[in-house]
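Incident review: delayed structure delivery

Summary: a single-chain prediction request sat in the queue longer than the usual turnaround. Root cause was a stuck worker, restarted by the on-call engineer. No data loss occurred. The affected request and its eventual output are reproduced below so the record is complete for anyone auditing the incident later.

Affected input:
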Amino acid sequence: MAIQDIYPTALRLLGRPVLVVGGGPVAARRAKGLLDAGALVTVVAPAACPALSRLADAGLLAWEPRPYRPSDVGAVWFVQTATGDAAVDAQVSADAEAQRIWCVNASDHEASAAWTPAVAVVDDVKIAVNAGGDPRRAMALRDAVATALETGDLPLRRHRLSGTGATTGAGSVALVGGGPGDSGLITVRGRRLLGQADVVVADRLGPRELLAELAPDVRVIEVGKTPGHHPVPQAEINAILVAEARQGHRVVRLKGGDPYVLGRGGEEAEFCRQNDVDVEVVPGVTSAISVPAAAGIPVTHRGLAKGFSVVTGHEELSEVPARADHTVILLMGVGQLRESAASLAHAGLPAGTPVGIVENGYLPDQRVTIGTLGTIADQAEAAGVANPAVIVIGDVVRVSPFAPAHFKVADYSTTTPNAPRTTKTRVLTP
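Output delivered after worker restart:
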């Protein structure tokens, strides 16, 4: 049998009787697949392997512990042979053929009236691969396709609604953390949901490159904010999510960083639940940790810092420890940098405490500015530092490969620091 002789189709066996002849591991796998399809499975075999016995003991299938008889194929819709005995399998196949019943012959795929493909299920998509009778090749291809669907590299989005169409409450919302902006740093789950979306409600700091990969009919609603400028108020964003989901759409709220780290994701999720809209939260790589890492700065480091605090304004700095061994991370804090530095100095943090600013972390125009608590505000102003940026204050800045040599008063690292990810970086030092 050549691959050209195959007419691919799918059997709907829900509630229909099927026969498995054989009691070994192959028969158990085939029986399990038939059970998953909802078939009424009868196994005929003198002995059953443990996997089959467990299915029978659980009442999921009927096992008749005896040899095969030609009359066994008389009242079934589909037959699977897996005895390991070519003569018995051939007899079963011939009996099924005589009664025009589809039969898979595990002993001789060339003589088999039907082939069992390698199967995987992703969401509500079932992938079935035949590869010219080569099962290992089929499994490899199946796994590759399934992985591409899982990661969003292949489109998983629905184009036909089930039933009579969308109804109120039929859609869903996914709050997806997109990471610091690099399209490769979104989670696999987030990328997959983005590929399934009908509507994307997008922030300014999410992975923008991924929006260009969306299908032309996917609507993108821009709700991005900049410091002091919120063109779409949060209450309106909440209302958009619910309204789109109620139209039956799969909505992805694509956010920068993590939805639950200073991203107001909690408010959006709560509003969806209050309005009976199904909502899922997909964590992201928060910029508070990842962007310093892009400049080789760990937020904690043995011998330097055991904890860290993340704040968004200098008013909050009075609540954090003013010590160089406790890392302070300021998000979107460029506009208040001078006030923040003064607050920390007033609280007792030494003026010589290292400070690093990472602009546009992980993006091609990433830039790092390193100085001290006493000098960083002037340096940032002279360099034209602007948001989006993450400011790191504390001795951990000494570990950065961008730090000047005189910052490294000791070898704080257990290994040589990695080379910087980008060359488009300027380091300003006092």
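Verification: The first helix runs from residue 25 to 36.
Action items: add queue-age alerting; document worker restart procedure.
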